[in-house]
Design brief:
5-stranded antiparallel β-sheet, alpha+beta, 492 residues
């Protein structure tokens, strides 16, 4: 028996126990924080080393037993103690790892939790028909419905974005929808494209007892309008190699600007020449992604689709709050007074990116007029802030698609001319680190003692805490900026 302990102790030697503990620790970190490129190779090396060791021990088991027989009595006695210590350590670490893995799987936002949710809620659909031009959105939704049983009445809970090539093949799709099922529960689905043009992914969320659906976001007007449009004819004059986009944000108001507006009639779309009344309706945009600055999008409104009466009632009963806010379409708005306000409105979008126009209202949001149709000079991204200090001086932030870069813009003529703000290099290191922090993220300016101040946070891909930032000051209303200091945050 003692000889068996000696042989087993040789197999479960301290190096093996330590490697197993390290393996479990890295595995837990991987489940909690991710880091495939950094942690998975280490896990593979350790697991491979342990596997090779045990295979070698199995292959040379006779030699190991013979070597154990040659050991002294003292060694054999210590081997017994070590063997049981090693067994208890391995079992304890395994139980602890299993318990912690379960805990991590319950923590919202961890990579393991996200992956488990994907397994539980994600469905991959193989499409039989991929030509969106010939089958329309109605045919596409029919294929999806056959797989996951969509609710009969659907609403979009965010913008719908679709890109396709001249053959009609889907290049990308982002379609977030929600509806009430037969059991009276509200189910929401995120339908997206994959790298395979013949596949879609549907992420289904947990059903809810209640959901604040908005008639402004009915999906059926998008489906009906697209099915009526002669898309092949409409894109005929556009470049052959281009990718084309469809964008839908529900019931929209265009003021009196007729540029690119078409009414869908029985005989097809008709360009709107003049507008005696405010242009409003469910709008489907057809455009060239990334080319909206030189190619005007075509925006189609089917007047046979009546809009929600309560939408117009909300406009007339609107209570204006001063300062920054989001409107019913989650567009960023800033009201300087009860009457005067500015708005960054989405004009068109490609998957993950948006193009904006700057609107102004002088009557509390009843009527909006476009001040600048392209304040960001052709750049796309996602707006992440707007502020005005008086009728003319305002600032906006546009975040890039990668979320690792953002640009602060400034206007001193109420938005007619907008320019990017430049900050001098602080030429200092944070936390005495040599890591390059080359893309600090600006926040909106704030006023203090007659001066404007801006915080620039480090690149979000770095490991710095969010409360560490560069502080800049301007004494000329944001025309020029001077570096003040680095505000160091605590590292928890």
């Amino acid at each position: 028996m003692k000889n068996n302990f000696s042989a087993k102790a040789l197999v479960l030697n301290p190096i093996i126990v330590i490697l197993y503990i390290i393996f479990c620790s890295i595995l837990l970190n991987f489940f909690e924080y991710g880091g495939t490129a950094r942690r998975v190779p280490v896990l593979i090396v350790i697991a491979g080393s342990l596997l090779v060791w045990f295979l070698l021990c199995l292959f040379f088991r006779k030699r190991i037993r013979k070597r154990a027989l040659d050991q002294s009595d003292t060694f054999r006695k210590m081997s017994a103690y070590w063997f049981w210590f090693a067994v208890v350590s391995l079992i304890g670490m395994t139980v602890y790892t299993g318990f912690q893995t379960y805990q991590i799987s319950q923590w919202w936002g961890t990579p393991l939790h996200r992956k488990i949710r994907e397994w539980q809620t994600e469905t991959t659909i193989d499409l039989e028909e991929t030509d969106i031009i010939s089958q329309g959105l109605d045919g596409l939704l029919a294929e999806i419905d056959a797989e996951i049983d969509l609710p009969e009445k659907l609403y979009a809970y965010s913008t719908v974005e679709l890109e396709f090539n001249r053959n009609g093949d889907i290049e990308s799709l982002y379609m977030p929808v929600v509806g009430e099922n037969e059991e009276g529960l509200f189910e929401s689905f995120l339908i997206t494209s994959t790298s395979n043009t013949n596949q879609l992914t549907v992420l289904r969320n947990e059903p809810q007892d209640t959901y604040d659906t908005d008639e402004d976001w009915l999906l059926s007007p998008l489906v009906d309008t697209v099915d009526q449009l002669p898309i092949s004819e409409l894109i005929k004059e556009w470049p052959e190699e281009e990718i084309f986009g469809i964008y839908y944000a529900g019931y929209r108001t265009w003021g009196y600007n007729t540029e690119g507006i078409y009414y869908v009639e029985d005989n097809g779309p008709v360009a709107l020449e003049t507008a005696n009344d405010e242009i409003i309706g469910y709008t489907v945009s057809l455009f060239l992604p990334g080319r909206t600055n030189d190619t005007t999008p075509m925006r189609f409104i089917d007047r046979s689709l009546s809009g929600p009466a309560e939408s117009q009632a909300r406009e007339t009963e609107r209570e204006v709050s001063l300062g920054y806010q989001l409107d019913d379409r989650q567009q960023e708005v800033y009201f300087l007074t009860k009457e005067l306000g500015y708005r960054l409105t989405v004009t068109d979008a490609a998957t993950g990116s948006r193009w904006y126009g700057l609107d102004r209202t002088a009557d509390g949001g009843m009527i909006w007029e476009t001040v600048n149709p392209d304040p960001f000079d052709g750049r796309s991204g996602e707006s992440s802030g707007i502020v005005f200090f008086d009728e003319a001086l305002g600032f906006f932030i546009l975040s890039m698609r990668s979320q690792s870069e953002a640009i602060l813009f400034r206007t001193d003529d109420a938005g007619e001319v907008v320019s990017a703000v430049e900050f001098p290099d602080p030429d200092v290191s944070m936390n005495d680190s040599e890591e390059d922090v080359s893309s600090p993220i600006p926040q909106l300016p704030y006023e203090e003692n007659g001066s404007l101040f801006v915080r620039l946070y480090p690149n979000p891909t770095s490991e710095y805490m969010h409360d560490t930032y560069y502080l800049y000051q301007s004494d000329d209303a944001g025309t020029t900026w001077n570096f003040v200091e680095v505000i160091e945050g605590s590292e928890d």
